[in-house]
């Protein structure tokens, strides 16, 4: 590594978020190391000399074999390990933590989403560490636009346990757009450190999403609202997990991605070139 180069550590470099972040930053000449978030000591070793760290956990690993409570505990513990290790790195200048809004606070206690809970515990830990907080950007990544290819999304028919005017804020294609946001955040530390950034390409209602799919594919399509129990019966465990998130968005609507402080968006960071839903749909083959 040359004097001019800076070491970036990307956690989850083979995943959807970390993978694209690492590729985008590597193209700029950044040297990277991989780290395991299960062992704080190995994380500290992997982080040595890091100028910046991009940290993300994986709630979904073992989703079908572990209890929801167990998954929350594992994610919280791994995320706190990442934060503890990062706080010990004297060279660290910027820490991006991929997290989510406080759904319980936003909804006045009416909604609790399991795959949000562990991340929020890590948020709390970071905010109690003043030194680490002074180097941290909290990155909220919107709904993956690529989820349209999941088995839960049936071509010609979109079934969700919410009304068809429920707004969904999407990051578009996370495989590309997450890296665009990561670069913008790292390149503008004076703006992004200590702040929340929302990685999103657009907001569309559930009805608008299925209409867009119909327009792009040239096929008829419709939206049907089902109950949360019905949705969970169709897609055991996955249905309830995703359904709870959708119902949160339905209830709080435009407040879904808000906090007590202003949230930075693509406009604040002068971001362009994002891959949106229409382009995702156009790139897929629909039989």
UniProtKB/TrEMBL annotation:
Pfam families: NmrA. One of its GO terms (cellular component) is nucleus. Gene3D superfamilies: NAD(P)-binding Rossmann-like Domain, UDP-galactose 4-epimerase, domain 1. This is NAD(P)-binding domain. Residues 21-252 form the NmrA-like domain. It comes from Penicillium digitatum. Belongs to the NmrA-type oxidoreductase family. The keyword NADP applies. Keywords: NADP.
């Amino acid at each position: 590594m040359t004097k001019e180069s800076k070491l970036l550590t990307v956690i989850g470099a083979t995943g959807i978020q970390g993978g694209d972040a690492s590729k985008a930053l590597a193209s700029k000449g950044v040297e990277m190391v991989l780290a395991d978030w299960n062992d704080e000591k190995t994380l500290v070793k992997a982080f040595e000399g890091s100028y910046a760290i991009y940290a993300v956990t994986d709630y979904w690993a073992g989703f079908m074999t572990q209890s929801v409570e167990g998954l929350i505990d594992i994610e919280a513990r791994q995320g706190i390990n990442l934060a503890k290790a990062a706080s010990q790195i004297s060279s660290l200048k910027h820490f991006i933590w991929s997290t989510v809004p406080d759904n319980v606070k936003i909804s006045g206690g009416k909604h609790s989403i399991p795959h949000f809970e562990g991340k929020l515990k890590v948020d709390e830990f970071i905010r109690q560490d003043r030194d680490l907080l002074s180097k941290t950007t909290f990155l909220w990544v919107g709904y993956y636009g690529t989820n349209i290819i999941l088995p839960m999304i049936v071509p010609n028919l979109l079934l969700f346990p919410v009304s068809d005017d429920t707004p969904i804020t999407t990051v578009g294609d996370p495989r590309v757009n997450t890296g665009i946001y990561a670069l913008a955040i790292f390149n503008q530390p004076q703006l992004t450190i200590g702040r929340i950034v929302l990685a999103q390409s657009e907001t569309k209602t559930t009805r608008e999403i299925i209409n867009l799919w119909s327009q792009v594919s040239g096929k008829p399509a419709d939206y049907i609202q089902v109950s949360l129990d019905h949705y969970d019966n169709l897609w055991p465990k996955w249905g309830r997990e995703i359904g709870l998130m959708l119902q949160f968005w339905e209830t709080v609507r435009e407040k879904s991605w808000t906090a007590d402080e202003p949230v930075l968006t693509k406009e604040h960071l002068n971001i362009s070139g994002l891959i949106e839903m229409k382009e995702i749909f156009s790139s897929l083959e629909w039989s």
